[in-house]
């Protein structure tokens, strides 16, 4: 004891061991910072690094490290690095706002997936409008040029409350009152101090280009009964070029907005009188959706799913049994009552309870498993009207749902098969870039979860192995599993690089328990099956929205509502045009005639705007020879062709897509 103490006293430069992600270890003096470590490696790295992960926690680059630690230096490419960058940018915007709007009060200002926002209360009678953005951006650039140091400080709860009360920052005071003493920190830059956990950049000059994007109203803490604040969204980048590219992408995204294209292509519409968030699918949109369903049903059939149909409402007891009523009942559409018997029904929020009842319709043996029940089941979920958005957030939607009931040892095989289905679908629809997330149990907190340890281990291993066998790179998140089972989620990247969460495969031990599902095993004993929920699209609505924005409405030939439009060069050839359309329709090709009394150039332009894959121009020569003059999407002139040849070619192209090669 004595000896150790002596050593410490003598050792002025105590050394600590820093372990890097590649497991290499270097020794540094105690109190070294992430930034200094980066400098010790290379000056280039020091310029690129934004924050440091220290023993799994993200830290400021300037925060001293006083003991052995595993560290990872975080750059722009790392989510946490970008997060620190954008969070610091939120502070920068707040500092600018404080300078421009004296008396402004601050709510919260987090980093989000793309940029950041800050909720502010500019004060009685003051509003912040789009026309004010340039002034805010200018101020932000000034503060960047000042290269203000961003300093972290621990503060007692009492001091924090006093400090923010003195400045009438009532929103901050409310936040502080909920924090535990000893855990509170502030960050200061220039004249601006924020209550904040961090982490942050070392100084404001890391931020190179700024853009205030939009302004919206937001209730304090999301509560309609609390004051409405002003939410300012912004984004920043370490390079001007990156901002320019981002703005360009945003403009392209606006052009591709599913609501805009949905209207242009007459796919769907919404009316207040029908109900917010309840889409009306127009004939062309319905055509598209039915094609998608047909495509999915074909695959399901190949993978031995059985289709079922269940009602749109269900007796309340069904959801009491499933547990949904206790969990979501209050925040759902309220029960419907029958006038005479006073029975209570709920709008169906999910299909699973119904499918459990179908499972129970017969005694099941191990020979019946896996049982795969599929349904394009329409469900209704209450969303606040402010949350609704085109087809991506609706109140009534149809899931491409299925539930697989299987034995625990079949989970892996079933996962592999569902992954096959998802890959076939993504390929057919040209989503080349996708990633997966595996959500597992929190190993430290096992009692939180329902189901036996053994089954969890089996299912978690099954998911990990299935991903490995498929060569699927997946991020593993511990503690992200639902209480009832682990899951695998798929995210696709669209043509603009935006990420959308789509398909899910989810293991469930809870519902089989609650519904007391059983099968007779080979041992003649009763066993509980495992249930797997899976929906490759998530919902038809959301998927169509993503597809619209991914393709900008240029759907693949097999899917597009109108595949061919025939354009007679003059009224004289209308009859021939209609006979061409009839021939194509006989071949299952979706064809229309544009017989408007317009110049053919105008017709071509209009139909190209409608993203028609093939335009057939017909005049005297074509009529005489039973030919069509083919113009492919994108203005590609393919010359004249026999009508029968064209029809055969198109039909083949469509059939290939509609019947994907499945190797089971
Ligand atoms: Zn902060
Ligand atoms: Zn389900």
Overview of the molecule:
- The protein is α+β, with helices and mostly antiparallel strands and 664 residues long.
- The strands form 8 sheets. An 8-stranded mixed beta sheet has the order 16-20-21-28-25-24-22-23, with helices on both faces.
- The protein is globular and about 95 Å long.
- The protein binds zinc ion (ZN) (2 copies).
- The site of one zinc ion (ZN) has 5 residues, from loops.
- Residues 350-352, 403, 533 line the site of one zinc ion.
Break the fold down into its secondary structure elements and pairings:
Blueprint: H1 2-10, E1 15-19, E2 25-29, H2 34-41, H3 43-48, E3 51-54, E4 57-59, E5 69-74, H4 79-100, E6 105-106, E7 111-112, E8 115-121, H5 133-145, E9 151-154, H6 157-166, H7 170-177, E10 185-189, E11 192-195, E12 209-219, E13 228-237, H8 240-256, H9 258-264, E14 268-269, E15 280-281, H10 283-302, E16 306-307, E17 313-315, H11 316-322, H12 324-328, E18 336-337, E19 344-347, H13 352-359, E20 371-380, E21 396-406, H14 411-428, E22 434-440, H15 453-469, E23 474-478, E24 487-493, E25 499-508, H16 510-514, E26 519-520, E27 526-527, E28 530-535, H17 540-551, E29 564-568, H18 574-586, E30 591-593, H19 600-609, E31 614-618, H20 620-625, E32 627-632, E33 636-642, H21 643-658
Parallel strand pairs: 1-5, 16-20, 22-23, 29-30, 29-31
Antiparallel strand pairs: 1-2, 3-4, 3-5, 6-8, 7-8, 8-13, 9-10, 10-11, 12-13, 14-15, 17-19, 18-19, 20-21, 21-28, 22-24, 24-25, 25-28, 26-27, 31-32, 32-33
Helix pairs in contact: 4-5, 6-7, 9-17, 14-15
This protein binds zinc ion (2 copies).
